[in-house]
């Protein structure tokens, strides 16, 4: 979900609406200064003293330095980006705020890491020695709480709770009082605001009563005697993540809601064989409204019950690890569903923001998403969200997170009705939500401290500088951001630009538009491009002809031939030039047709567009197989040559007239010809090193549905007479060597240099 995106969203779970808004591309400029708001240190000292802890010490004028003598004040990033200089005071202020909050937590709770073990105290916990069950809930504004459920006949008078310090209510049930699987709720008495039943905020499972039409969700006490035991360790963090974005519920070939175990057994092997080293799971956090794509979370600690139990999800993660695939969770801390009956929003009943999970008034409501916004500087909100992160890693062994809706968190305006131009004044101003930024810094600092191999990715459309720099350097601490301008660029070209007007220089500008030392995950399309109101890249390219023209038993039409060629070229160009990792949405690697539309009243509650047609890719008489085979080869090339993570990236030619693009990434040379009909024989291209080059990947190969116009057995030698005479209008330093290649229209080729040892072996073999 993105701050500038409208999507199918619930309003009291009674109706759905779908709108779409444009996305904004971020570039780099600007400057403005922000001064700190007063009073935070006093607030922290008061909170610490309430807990009987010593007040935190304000950061002194004496600078803190690291082992190398570098001052640690949040401004180290300026050395990497001089445009940050006008915002030095802002960077210092947010880093000082981060340090103060971290120190306050450490003073009151020993450390942020222990603070983030809230799930061991709140919600339902079982005493290992006695078997007694204690239930705790933070509700400082409530007049009274009572635990109700199957175990006591839903009798609020049977299990009253008592209020302890800091607004926490609790009750202890003797062993055997409540059984595993019992349905539960907490009755909240809110004085003159009335009384109502709510699902416990820290509940680890929530379900609807089976067979009851229109039933609401109930919390479930989850404490199985036999918990799933993990068998496989997490795979190591890869140099470049090749991410498969997946939705378990819609992963079946059949029109139904699929399960975690079905996904583990049927889909994970496809992902691993396809060459993806990471799967990103959407819609795992419980959400009452299926059509929200999982982004209107109701119960942050609960596993979506539509697809199975918590133990089933553990089986999925463990199965992935056994296949060498890491698992990222699509985490939603940017907002929560406004559904008060089934979710955490129900604990806000009009009290002040200091006693709520959410902000007051407009500060606590996202008008476009119809959802609630967390108050990130509240003590118990920080505990809740940080504990949520640690819980998913500790309990389910997730290898990282993709933070959804980060743009909405970074700014008080949430990115709404904003056109991010790249002016740095848009990133560092009074519009910046420093409380949310500092929460993200605390989260990333904690995660990377506890789990050095973790990967945390930000979905941010604004392009905020420092977002993906370490917290120790004054950054927000993410490992990478999604390169969200790239899919927008491709959609714009497919919608508005005839092939003859495609610009090579615009491609380079868009794909290379990322900050030095801040990693990006490139992609042609994610789930965003597939939701109803839009359509997949393959459908933009081939549209209705996909229904009749994908059979290999007939010659391809012009539309199909063009579509298959560009589908492969767009992916290869994006993967090789657009970032330090790559992502695709489930099924789009083989050109999944049409769009995604969840069951709703408007489509007669149909699952027909909420599934994945794996049968299309598996059919040996359909051309989908060619797109899938190419995707596998493209990722296998990265496994062998690690071009996605390579620091070396040099564009030597970008010729808009001839539609040619030549560049180096890592040890490979890429040649793209986007011309509609011009094939260049003996094309002179520049390369970085002399020697022999061989073709290692060709979008035009027959196995990928092409015409096989290039030969894999041809050796290409550089010539000794200096750099190429042609470099095109893209201004780059001419390469020191040149060679000649065949470049067919609408195709791309990748070459590797044969190293000296290989050449010597070949010579020795020939002599023998």
UniProtKB/TrEMBL annotation:
Cellular component annotations (GO), alphabetically ordered: amyloplast
Annotated Low complexity bias: 11-21
Pathway info: Glycan biosynthesis
InterPro entries, per database record: A-amylase/branching_C, Branching_enzy, GH, GH13_cat_dom, Glyco_hydro_13_N, Glyco_hydro_b, Ig-like_fold, Ig_E-set
UniProt keyword list: Amyloplast, Plastid, Transferase
Catalytic reactions on record: Transfers a segment of a (1->4)-alpha-D-glucan chain to a primary hydroxy group in a similar glucan chain
Annotated segments matching region Disordered: 1-27
Alphabetized SUPFAM superfamilies for the sequence: (Trans)glycosidases (SSF51445), E set domains (SSF81296), Glycosyl hydrolase domain (SSF51011)
Main localization of the protein described in the UniProt heading: plastid
Record GO biological process: glycogen biosynthetic process
Protein name per the record: 1,4-alpha-glucan branching enzyme
């Amino acid at each position: 979900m993105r701050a500038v995106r409208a999507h199918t969203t619930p309003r009291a779970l009674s109706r759905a609406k779908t709108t779409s808004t444009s996305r904004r591309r971020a570039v780099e400029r600007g400057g403005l200064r922000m001064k700190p708001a007063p009073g935070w240190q006093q607030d922290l000292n008061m909170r610490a003293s309430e807990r009987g802890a010593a007040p935190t010490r304000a950061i002194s004028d004496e600078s803190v330095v690291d082992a190398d003598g570098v001052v640690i004040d949040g401004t180290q990033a300026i050395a990497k980006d001089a445009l940050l200089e006008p915002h030095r005071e802002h960077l210092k202020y947010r880093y000082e705020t981060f340090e103060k909050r971290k120190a306050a937590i450490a003073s009151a709770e020993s450390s942020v890491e222990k603070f983030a073990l809230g799930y061991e105290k709140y919600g339902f916990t079982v005493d290992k020695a006695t078997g007694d069950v204690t239930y705790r809930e933070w509700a400082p504004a409530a007049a009274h709480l009572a635990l109700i459920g199957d175990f006591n006949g839903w009798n609020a008078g049977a299990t009253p709770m008592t209020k302890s310090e800091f607004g926490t209510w609790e009750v202890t049930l003797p062993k055997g009082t409540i059984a595993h699987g019992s349905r539960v709720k907490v009755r909240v008495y809110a004085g003159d605001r009335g009384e109502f039943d709510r699902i416990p905020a820290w509940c680890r499972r929530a379900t609807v009563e089976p067979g009851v039409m229109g039933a609401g969700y109930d919390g479930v006490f989850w404490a199985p005697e036999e918990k799933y035991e993990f068998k496989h360790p997490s795979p190591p963090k890869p140099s470049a993540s090749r991410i498969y974005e997946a939705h378990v519920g819609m992963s079946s070939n059949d029109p139904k809601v699929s399960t975690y175990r079905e996904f583990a057994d049927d889909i994970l092997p496809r992902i691993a064989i396809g060459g993806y080293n990471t799967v990103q799971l959407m819609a795992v956090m419980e959400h009452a409204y299926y059509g929200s794509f999982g982004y209107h979370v109701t119960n942050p600690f609960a596993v979506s019950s539509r697809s199975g139990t918590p133990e089933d999800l553990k089986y999925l993660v463990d199965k992935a690890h056994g296949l060498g695939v890491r698992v990222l969770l699509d985490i939603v801390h940017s907002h929560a569903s406004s559904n008060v009956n089934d979710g955490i929003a129900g604990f806000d009943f009009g009290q002040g923001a200091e006693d709520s999970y959410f902000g007051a008034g407009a500060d606590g409501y996202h008008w476009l998403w119809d959802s609630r916004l967390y108050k990130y500087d509240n003590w118990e909100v920080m505990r809740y969200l940080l504990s949520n992160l640690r819980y998913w890693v500790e309990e389910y062994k997730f290898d990282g997170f993709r933070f959804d809706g980060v743009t909405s968190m970074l700014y008080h305006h949430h990115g709404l009705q904003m056109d991010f131009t790249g002016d740095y004044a848009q990133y560092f101003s009074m519009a910046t939500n420093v409380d949310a930024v500092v929460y993200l810094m605390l989260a990333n600092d904690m995660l990377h401290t506890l789990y050095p191999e973790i990967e945390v990715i930000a979905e941010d459309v604004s392009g905020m500088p420092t977002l993906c720099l370490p917290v120790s350097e004054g950054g927000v601490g993410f490992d990478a951001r999604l390169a969200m301008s790239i899919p927008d660029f491709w959609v714009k070209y497919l919608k508005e630009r005839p092939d003859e007007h495609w610009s090579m220089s615009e491609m380079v500008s868009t794909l290379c538009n990322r900050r030095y030392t801040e990693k990006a995950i490139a992609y042609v399309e994610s789930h965003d491009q597939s939701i109803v109101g839009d359509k997949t890249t393959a459908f933009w390219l081939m549209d209705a002809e996909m229904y009749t023209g994908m059979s290999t038993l007939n010659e391809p039409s012009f539309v199909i031939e063009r579509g298959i060629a560009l589908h492969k070229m767009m992916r290869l160009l994006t993967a090789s030039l657009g970032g330090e990792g790559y992502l695709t949405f489930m099924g789009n690697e083989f050109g999944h047709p049409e769009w995604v539309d969840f069951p709703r009243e408007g489509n007669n509650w149909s699952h027909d567009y909420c599934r994945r047609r794996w049968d299309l890719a598996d059919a040996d008489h359909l051309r989908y197989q060619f797109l899938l085979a190419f995707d596998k080869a493209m990722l296998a090339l990265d496994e062998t040559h690690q071009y996605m993570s390579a620091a070396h990236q040099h564009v030597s030619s970008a010729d808009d007239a001839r539609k040619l693009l030549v560049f180096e990434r890592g040890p490979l040379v890429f040649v793209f010809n986007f011309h509609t009909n011009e094939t260049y024989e003996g094309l002179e291209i520049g390369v970085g090193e002399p020697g022999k080059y061989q073709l290692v990947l060709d979008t035009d190969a027959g196995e990928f549905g092409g015409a096989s116009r290039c030969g894999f057995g041809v050796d290409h030698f550089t010539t000794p007479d200096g750099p190429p005479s042609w470099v095109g209008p893209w201004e780059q330093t001419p390469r020191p060597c040149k060679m000649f290649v065949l470049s067919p229209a609408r195709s791309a080729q990748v070459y590797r240099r044969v190293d000296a040892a290989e050449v010597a072996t070949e010579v020795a073999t020939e002599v023998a």
